[in-house]
Amino acid sequence: MSRNQQQNFEVGIYSLADLGPDPLTGKMIGTKQRMDEIIQAAKLADQAGLDVFGVGEHHRLDYVVSSPAVVLSAIGQVTNQIKLTSTTSVVSTLDPVRLFEDFATLDVISGGRAEILAGRGAFIESFPLFGYSTNDYNELFEEHMDLLLKLNEQEVVSWNGSFRSSLNKAEISPRPVQEKLPIWIGVGGTPESAVRAGRLGVGMALAILGGKPERFQPLVDIYRKAGLDAGHSINELNLGVTGHAYIGRTTEEAMDEFYPYYSNYWYYVNKQRGMGTKMSRSDFDHLAGPDTALFVGSPDDIVEKVLYQHELYGHTRFLAQVDIGGLPFEKVERNIELLATEVVPKLRKYIKEKK
């Protein structure tokens, strides 16, 4: 039995591969170094016993990963057990056949460790890039998800839709090592997305980037109700939480070290969206407070926040984004170490004792 089969509560890390300057030095690493560090982070996560590693898709010069399947295939060759997922794949503007075959290939290469986390993305640059209109935003997602799920179920597929050519007894190759690829939908804050994930019977990865954890509880309830109403079993309705994280030896150390990078991250992300405001220290202290969903603090602080959310949601997966805002790699390495050695054992102990 593999490590991942033995554990009921999974913990992992992910990267969206943002490329930004270190706010303390003003220096920015190049694309090659950023990519090398992402692969090294995955190796460290695997060696440390974490369960999942993910990379996200963007099509901008300030991000270095446009093809998660390619990057994860490279990671699959230098890791042994860790699950490999997209976080996310922009399914609205990807051809579902290409997406499925790429991740089925990753599954073969990695010996059955591939997953797809589908989403609509934070930016819309992929729509004109691949010849789609944002006027079809919702319809594209619905149709492409429908086809993706059918491809996962059947080796030979016939299908008709509005946005791509029909399939007539098309052979879909290769088939994954797993019986089916695990498929999740990333959900930010919209009830419609939670309903869709439940109705389709796929996992829901809840992106929680701040605020009070309680405000996300309705989305969890909506997801499970929609799934059960659609005839899916509760065991099919996997729930994960993703969010920004920074772990220090103490609460104060974590807050002091992470503030410049977190402020920097939101400064250049908001600038991409036409806003250029900088986060004050007092705003950061409020966002990262003990009763919020932002995972910043000592190992015990992180344990308490994850356990509190587990009480609310009953989720079985937590993914931490630990490399944002130009954070130097030595700090990323330390986050992985603290997560694996000081957070995960306590989490699993408390969750096991609760059962």
Automatic annotation (TrEMBL):
Give the organism the record lists.
Gracilibacillus halotolerans
Which Pfam families is this protein grouped with? Bac_luciferase (PF00296)
TM segment ranges: none
- Give me the Gene Ontology terms describing cellular component: cytosol
- Which GO MF terms are attached to this record? monooxygenase activity; oxidoreductase activity, acting on paired donors, with incorporation or reduction of molecular oxygen
| Domain spans labelled Luciferase-like | 10-314
**InterPro entries linked:** Bact_Lucif_Oxidored, Luciferase-like_dom, Luciferase-like_sf
Q: What is this protein called?
A: Putative LLM family oxidoreductase
> Keywords assigned by UniProt?
Monooxygenase, Oxidoreductase
